Amino acid sequence: MARHHDTIEILVTARHLEAQGIRPTTRMLRLALGGGSNAAIAQALAVEELTPLEELIRRRRDQLDLDIANARRVLAELEAEQARLDELDDSLAALGRA
């Protein structure tokens, strides 16, 4: 079964091979990654020709920061809704005791 690898993981692995003086091929990268799609690896290598790895990492980090901020906003909204429900439950319980 082929394991999925994202573009950044493929390119970092390629950089590691290059640092060892090895010009990485698709087959070498697949072996180094322990699997993966030849097409995905070839596509990742083509992407790096257009966009440097450091830029891809920066963009991904920025997207993750945005996703985290959005998740925190949604969590805050859910916590506020939960607090409103708790208040309503408390007010109903108070009515039942009266």
Automatic annotation (TrEMBL):
- Coiled coil feature spans: 61-98
Q: Which domain of life is it from?
A: Bacteria
Q: Name the UniProt key words of this record, in alphabetical order.
A: Coiled coil
* Listed name of the protein: KfrA N-terminal DNA-binding domain-containing protein
Q: Which organism is it from?
A: Azospirillum argentinense
Lineage, broadest ranks = Bacteria, Pseudomonadati, Pseudomonadota, Alphaproteobacteria, Rhodospirillales
